[in-house]
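Chapter review: from sequence to fold.
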Amino acid sequence: MAAESPGQKNGFKSFFSNALRPKKSRQTLRKGSRSTTDLRLAARSSIDTVPPMPELAPLHAHRLKYRELHAEVDSQLGERRDYTEIIHSLGTLDVNEISAPTYEHNDTRPPGEGDIASLPPKLWQRIATYLNPAEAASLAIASITLYRRLGPKYFLALDHADNHTYKTEFLAGLEISLPHHLLCFPCTKYHLRTSEGTERLRPSHVLNPLFNCPNSTNTRNPPPRHRITHGRNLPFTFVQLVMRAHRFGPKYGLPVEALGRRWERDNWSHTSRFHIHAGRLLMRVTSQTFAPPGLPPSAQRILLYSREDYWPYFSACAHWRDGELMPACKCALGHIPRPRSTGGLQGLEHKVKDRIAGQVFDPNALTTLCGFCRPMRRCPECPTEYLIEVKLTEDRADGRFKQAIVVTRWSDLGDGRTPGGIEWAAINGVGEDYDSFIHYAKRGIASIFEAAFTADTLPGQRVVSLNPKKKKLGEEGNQWY
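The token string follows.
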């Protein structure tokens, strides 16, 4: 039996104390020992085996790799062809990253003159035969190569009398390069603006030339214009100026606010205002006059019609004779309350009836219209809407409140390119096959116009047809008078 160490004790207590004592490490580090040298060598070897750091972050490297794999882009549209790739690319692309430019904005693409010249001239001649004269001339002027292939014959064809409309369309497309000129439609050529930037609307009896034109006083070939009210016209040149400034810039024309006017004539007061919506010019004309109660039919005609041309004093489109516009105005005049006699038995009878009914008669009370004259009317043949109202208005001459008839008209004047536009031709009675209930099926012209200037909306009005029976009698009909 081995000799016991001097400090070792036997017994139950010493057994447990030795069992619970932590064990000594089998590899005690000592100075100059072999184990220390082995640990240092192992650490150096582990450092040498660590992989090097990548040049790019893992996410950025994944993005670059994914772009290389899915770089197939449609050369015509600049879009990815596979929608699955679009969805997957959303997770790899930065949110603030600007997308690649499309084909039409790519300035680094090679010029197409070589591709045009590679096709034979006979093929370009064949292509031009499928185009109208205005489109063929626009194709020929697109580049010098196309002009050499097509020649000047398409420009000469525009001078033919039958191609006057096509020549106007072709010249209207050149307005972006002519800010200091205006297209004269009677002459079908551009004239230099004589009062550039200071053009103003004038009454119809005042000569207001915007350029020097030999046909300015030619009654056989007048410039296009639209009748607003009696003695007030809207020349198409002002529609051109406003729409050109809206499309290209202020130096091309006038702001839309420059067309608004207020004027009085023949005891009628008028206010016009204009607004541009979706590339088209909208017009609102409000006309009003004081109307005494109990007018006979002859007095109603004198109040509503001009004795010079038998048109209404208020603003109306070219189809006002066909339909129920004038009968609705006469019906509204019939709703103005009449003053009652306060003397004698008749006055006593009125007082007894009012007391039994529990009401007090007020000749200046608000007038309520009936179901015939209250709804808003829309002309089915042109983009025009009417609203007839009877309002209590102050007469500034004597300071009293009187009943006045108010007729408001909203119209769409078109895009202002040529007088042959569908809207401009329709409101002047020249266009055909125009259905306003198809073009404005969801939202009316009045709603669009009023929403642009105020947060308040018009009172709920149902829109009915101005000519529900679709009868076109014109002056031969007797209902309009």
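Two observations follow directly from the output. The chain has a mean pLDDT of 81. Residues 113-172 form one domain.
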